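During the reporting period the student researcher (J.K.) took over the structure-prediction task from the postdoctoral fellow and processed the backlog of single-chain submissions. One of the processed entries is reproduced below for the supervisory committee.
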Amino acid sequence: MKEIIAIVRMNKVSVTKKALINVGAAGFTASKVMGRGKLVEDKSLIAGRRKTLMALAQKDDQATDKLITEFLDGTRLFPRRLFNVMAHDEEVPKIIAAIIAANKTEHKVGDGKIFVLPVLDAIRVRTKESGEAAI
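J.K. obtained the following structure tokens:
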């Protein structure tokens, strides 16, 4: 048994949920979280993102500039969605592939992370089944 933890963009929640259902994930939970990933060091990529974000904001004031600067330099946490998926060992590769397909963008940054952890046991509360049967 494995637990797959996926951190994804908020705007990718629906497609991630559909991908997990389509691939046959036994069940999953999703939580709102705040965080940040590895900082991007490519100055040209940062400049391009800054220009795009400023254009999307349609404002050119100090407050907007501060928010975008903090977003790009890593000092601000931003919202993400955390999915927890319990899976049988043999299902892990297809679940990971589905999460990646649903979340990969052309932004070159911020598409998320996936962690896979071993699970020692699981117990279904209703029936008291444990182990693989509980998933």
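The committee noted the following: The longest helix spans residues 43-57.
J.K. will present the remaining backlog at the next meeting.
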